[in-house]
């Protein structure tokens, strides 16, 4: 949640996505923040009693977008066309961008360009009322879960890039505790609802196992 971030947190990569105050989703977000404060992340990600799964996933997806937006915003000066000419997560994993509408055939591009495409695409999905309805009583579409899974799969790639290519910068900025807490929350959430294929998580598998073993 946003309360994790320090003095540099005002610098976001894209505008923050706000959940309207007074709405049911806002109440859910507050509930999530309160549970997170207890320190038990496995419990904090569970679906609250009586709540709808789609709504819980929607609220958390918006929150993860905001967290990653902030984290990436702190290191944009280190992630350049020169330093990161390809979007990678270590030497074995490289990502090419396609969104299925504007860019149908995957293109090879630099990390800052890829992340710009990715965050703009996510923002467009979150702003689409037919996909992410903010009004009470408006149903989620039938394809909501598959859209949410694609968003989370792509947001994971930003974490993977930061960990593999920019962790030194994160440590210099003393942001590693924020990054680790945010990523742990993200991973526990996607594991709880089986939202990202295990193969997609491979670039950070060792870290994921390490984070999980601390909670057993």
UniProtKB/TrEMBL annotation:
InterPro entries: MOB_kinase_act_fam (IPR005301), MOB_kinase_act_sf (IPR036703). It comes from the Eukaryota. Zn(2+) binds at residues 79, 84, 161, 166. Keywords: Metal-binding, Zinc. This is MOB kinase activator 1A. It comes from Amphiprion percula. The lineage of its organism: Eukaryota, Metazoa, Chordata, Craniata, Vertebrata.
């Amino acid at each position: 949640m946003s309360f994790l971030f320090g003095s540099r947190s005002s610098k976001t990569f894209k505008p923050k996505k706000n959940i309207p105050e007074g709405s049911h989703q806002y109440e859910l977000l507050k509930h999530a923040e309160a549970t997170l404060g207890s320190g038990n992340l496995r419990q904090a990600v569970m679906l609250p009693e009586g709540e709808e799964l789609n709504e819980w996933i929607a609220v958390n997806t918006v929150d993860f977008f905001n967290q990653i937006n902030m984290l990436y915003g702190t290191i944009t000066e280190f992630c350049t066309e020169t330093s990161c000419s390809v979007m990678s997560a270590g030497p074995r994993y490289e990502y090419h961008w396609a969104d299925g509408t504007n860019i149908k055939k995957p293109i090879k591009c630099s990390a800052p360009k890829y992340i710009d495409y990715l965050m703009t695409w996510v923002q467009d999905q979150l702003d689409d009322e037919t996909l992410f309805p903010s009004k009470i009583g408006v149903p989620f579409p039938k394809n909501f879960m598959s859209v949410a899974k694609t968003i989370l799969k792509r947001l994971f790639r930003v974490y993977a890039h930061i960990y593999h290519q920019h962790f030194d910068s994160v440590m210099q900025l003393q942001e590693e505790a924020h990054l680790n807490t945010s990523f742990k929350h993200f991973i526990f959430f996607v594991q709880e609802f089986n939202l990202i294929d295990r193969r997609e998580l491979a670039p950070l598998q060792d870290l994921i196992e390490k984070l999980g073993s601390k909670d057993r």
